[in-house]
Task: inverse folding
């Protein structure tokens, strides 16, 4: 049955994380953080997100993921991926990854990695999840493996923090952008329901960062957070 998950073999799951050029990252924080501080924050959140993914890959849990790949045009991000022990794929079309190019980049990466429509489940995960926990990701993945396309809606209720394509002949068909949750649902993705605050808490604004801090930041993001002297309600940090 199309979209049904295979039950006769363990699931192989490839997580893809797309990261834009660092010079273009988190522009909504420009009023509060300098360009260098924004870069430090983006890099820290990426490191913490990848650390969780590596933990979900290297765990003895049978629900574990099997591969992680970062797709990016940025050589610094590529080097961070290597340091973290995950794969790297240059943006296949050599475009700058932004909101308009993210969907094409993910689709090209899915094709380049040989996962599209095959015996491998694919997850497109946001790179700015500094409060993510391994257990949250594996629990959501367990629900997603029931088959087909599915999403985890972000903390705003309008965005998508994770997109899953599980089962034979299932592709990501990403619809990231404004109101991506609604776009994914309209295209047939089902919504996964679970208590996964860290998985839902992506960071685009200072308020998002403070919310993530209340959940508990990963060590890299916590170090940047403390260095900047972040205090809720303070817009200018430096």
Result:
């Amino acid at each position: 049955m199309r979209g049904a998950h295979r039950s006769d073999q363990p699931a192989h799951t490839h997580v893809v994380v797309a990261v834009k050029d660092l010079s273009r990252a988190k522009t909504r924080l420009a009023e509060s953080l300098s360009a260098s501080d924004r870069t430090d924050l983006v890099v820290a959140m990426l490191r913490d997100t990848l650390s969780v993914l590596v933990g979900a890959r290297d765990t003895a849990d049978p629900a574990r993921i099997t591969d992680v790949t970062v797709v990016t045009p940025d050589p610094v991000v590529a080097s961070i991926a290597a340091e973290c022990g995950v794969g790297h794929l240059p943006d296949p079309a050599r475009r700058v990854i932004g909101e308009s190019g993210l969907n094409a980049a993910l689709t090209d990466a899915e094709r380049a990695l040989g996962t599209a429509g095959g015996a491998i489940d694919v997850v497109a995960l946001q790179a700015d999840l500094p409060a993510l926990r391994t257990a949250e990701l594996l629990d959501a993945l367990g629900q997603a493996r029931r088959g087909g396309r599915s999403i985890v809606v972000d903390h705003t209720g309008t965005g998508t923090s994770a997109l899953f394509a599980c089962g034979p002949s299932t592709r990501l068909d990403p619809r990231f952008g404004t109101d991506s949750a609604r776009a994914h649902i309209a295209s047939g993705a089902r919504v996964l329901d679970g208590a996964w605050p860290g998985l839902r808490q992506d960071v685009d604004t200072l308020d998002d960062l403070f919310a993530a801090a209340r959940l508990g930041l990963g060590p890299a993001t916590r170090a940047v957070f403390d260095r900047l002297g972040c205090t809720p309600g303070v817009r200018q940090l430096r």
About this structure: The chain has a mean pLDDT of 88. The chain has one domain: 12-225. The radius of gyration is 17 Å.
